[in-house]
């Protein structure tokens, strides 16, 4: 047997699963550890969208140094705003 990883379009999933069911003596379906997480597909789509937005210039990707500077400023603003 060979092991494959496939991505299936949502609109084709039912048809594909029917095919697998009919071919069960030739196909073994095992759940990937990725799918133990029920939100895996949702997060995968979100990450793909974020990557596209960065590539298209709709979002900015900061370096670690820039992120740390911005986060430090944010923390200081929060401390000022909510300090007793």
Describe it for me?
By secondary structure, the chain is mostly helical. The protein has one domain (10-82). It has helices at residues 13-22, 40-55, 64-82. The longest helix has 19 residues, at 64-82. The radius of gyration is 22 Å and the shape is elongated. The model has no long low-confidence stretch (mean pLDDT 88).
The helix tally amounts to 3
Shape: elongated
Mean pLDDT: 88
Helix content: 40-55%
Main sheet characteristics: none
The count of DSSP E runs of length 2 or more, i.e. the number of strands, is: 0
Helix- and strand-based class? mainly alpha
Report the β-strand fraction as a percent range: under 5%
Order of helices and strands: HHH
Low-confidence stretches: none
How many whole angstroms does the radius of gyration measure?
A: 22 Å
Number of domains: 1
C-alpha termini separation: 66 Å
Q: Characteristics of this structure?
A:
single chain; 84 residues; mainly alpha; 3 helices
Short summary of the structure?
This protein is mostly helical and 84 residues long. It has three helices and no strands.
SSE blueprint:
Layout: H1 13-22, H2 40-55, H3 64-82
């Amino acid at each position: 047997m060979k092991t494959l990883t496939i991505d299936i379009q949502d609109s084709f999933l039912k048809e594909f699963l029917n095919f697998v069911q009919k071919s069960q003596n030739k196909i073994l379906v095992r759940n990937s550890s990725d799918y133990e997480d029920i939100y895996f597909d949702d997060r995968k789509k979100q990450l793909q969208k974020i990557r596209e937005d960065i590539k298209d210039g709709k979002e900015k990707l900061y370096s670690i140094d820039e992120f740390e500077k911005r986060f430090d400023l944010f923390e200081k603003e929060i401390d000022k705003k909510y300090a007793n």
